[in-house]
């Protein structure tokens, strides 16, 4: 069985095969994931992202991001500095925070690959529609949590697994770049691992505060 990419457990089990690939689930953190050998190449991955039509001037896209933006804004001190991790080809969430008075940095391995921003400290970090793409989410979230002081926030937006029965009919698994699928239990495990408190203020949103 493949090792869990979130918690590194070896207690994983196969639970689904569709027309394209297999899906496993960790028995410790309940992350569902695609095995490494069935991930697509980085060139094909970027080709999918290049097709995204997310634009800062799109009000519907801003309303979508507001599910994370609004509850996180309620928890930030004035002038708090943030990092938008995985900003994509059309950074928008970072602009929304800047418009609200929060200085922002952005990082994206394809579109904003300056890793120097990952050596700084931030009051909050956001990752919207990113977690499902991560090959090693455990290591990535450990790295992001290390950028935060006590009391800092990590805001994550990704659709969550409800049940294995629903998983087989879930449109979210049809995207070939989606390789990790979190449940609430996965975030609860992650929060405990990172010394953080987690809450779920809106659909698909998890806010983790460093203790």
Number of strands: 10
* Spatial gap, N to C terminus: 34 Å
CATH topology: Rossmann fold
Strand order of the largest sheet: 5-4-6-7-10-9
Low-confidence stretches: none
Q: Secondary-structure element order, as H and E?
A: EEEHHEHEEHEHEHEE
| Main sheet makeup | 6 strands, mixed
Please give the count of helices. 6
Q: Write down the overall mean pLDDT.
A: 97
What is the gyration radius calculated from CA atoms? 17 Å
The geometry reads as: globular
The number of domains:
1
Structural category is alpha/beta
How much of the residues is beta strand, in percent? 15-25%
- What is the CATH level 1 assignment? Alpha Beta
CATH homologous superfamily placement? Vaccinia Virus protein VP39
Question: What percent of the residues sit in helical stretches (DSSP H or I)?
Answer: 25-40%
Per CATH, the architecture is 3-Layer(aba) Sandwich
Structure, described:
The chain has a six-stranded mixed β-sheet, sandwiched between helices. The chain has a four-stranded antiparallel β-sheet with strand order 1-2-3-8, with no helix packed on it. It has helices spanning 42-49, 59-73, 93-99, 137-145, 164-167, 184-194; strands at 12-17, 22-26, 32-33, 82-85, 104-107, 124-128, 153-157, 180-181, 196-202, 205-210. The protein has six helices and ten strands; from the N terminus they run E-E-E-H-H-E-H-E-E-H-E-H-E-H-E-E. A hairpin with a 2-residue loop joins strand 9 and strand 10 (205-210). By secondary structure, the chain is α/β, with parallel strands linked by helices. It has a single domain (48-210), classed as Vaccinia Virus protein VP39 (Rossmann fold, 3-Layer(aba) Sandwich). The mean pLDDT is 97. The relative contact order is 0.17.
